[in-house]
Amino acid sequence: MEHYSGSQxxxxxxxxxxxxLKSLGQNFLQDEKVIFKILDGSEIGPEDLVIEVxxxxxxxxxxxxxxxxxxxxxxxxxxxxxxxNAALINCGNAEIINGDILKTDIASLIRxxxxxxxxxxxxxxxxxxxxxxxxxxxxxxxxxxxxxVMMQKEVADRLTAAPGTKECGAITLQTxxxxxxxxxxxxxxxxxxxxxxxxxxxxxxxxxxxxxxxVPDRKFLFDVIKAGFTLRRKTLRNSLMTxxxxxxxxxEDALKESGIDPVRRGETLSLEEYAELxxxxxxxxxx
Length: 287
Ligand code: SAM
Description:
Layout: H1 13-16, E1 28-29, H2 32-42, E2 49-53, H3 61-67, E3 70-75, H4 81-87, E4 94-98, H5 106-113, E5 119-124, H6 130-140, E6 146-152, H7 153-159, H8 170-178, E7 179-187, E8 192-193, E9 200-207, H9 218-230, H10 236-239, H11 248-257, H12 271-285
Parallel strand pairs: 2-3, 2-5, 3-4, 5-6
Antiparallel strand pairs: 1-8, 6-9, 7-9
Helix pairs in contact: 8-9, 9-12, 11-12
Bound molecules: S-adenosylmethionine.
């Protein structure tokens, strides 16, 4: 646990005495330029519903509320609720929920609060749950338009990786199924208090209205992708055996019928190739 540094002298008394919890990923943004990069990158409009993950002491929150039609911020640490309420005293369109974002019913939050505009997710994420948060919004956030969030650079590199590169993982293709991903900026450690151990980056995900590939069962497609990445140094033929429920011959047939060389590595396949493979495997299983 650490305390606000002396340079935070413009913070109020309760903030100055705040003890950061590493276990909650509490690295607060103190660089205004970065704060504006997230807000500008999100393109919040006056009719938009903004959902902020982990507002902390409100570095992004007040300005986001000024730009939005409605802002809902979900913060797990109850010690921060009075700080946030004080910061948002003049923002009648802002609501703070003291809760766990991973347990929040995002779909009803959106249904009950959306206005005429877009639904935008923003945040400087708690890094210990970056991937589950992003996947939750993508999988359950019916109606979400954009997700503009700070994360550890290593995860940002994965989400923006090209097929075949060492950064490309199952999560790269899963994210690509739902959204177009682009990097807004890289962020140095010095932008935070306390300073994290890792570098950071802001990404914007524009959620696709239609899936880029057509498969009967998204969960099975994701299982095939995960299997493809399970044994990174092995050929696809071997990696896909970890799927279970298929014989070696069935895997060989599916690869052949999909026009994919069985000695390729899982990380070199595109989303379209995985989609074709999952369709063929389903067909073969039902023969
Ligand atoms: N937005 C603030 C800023 O940039 O200064 C704080 C960002 S800090 C990296 C992450 C915030 O997420 C912390 O305030 C932390 O308490 C909160 N948090 C951690 N786990 C959470 C969870 N499961 N649900 C909601 N908020 C969470």
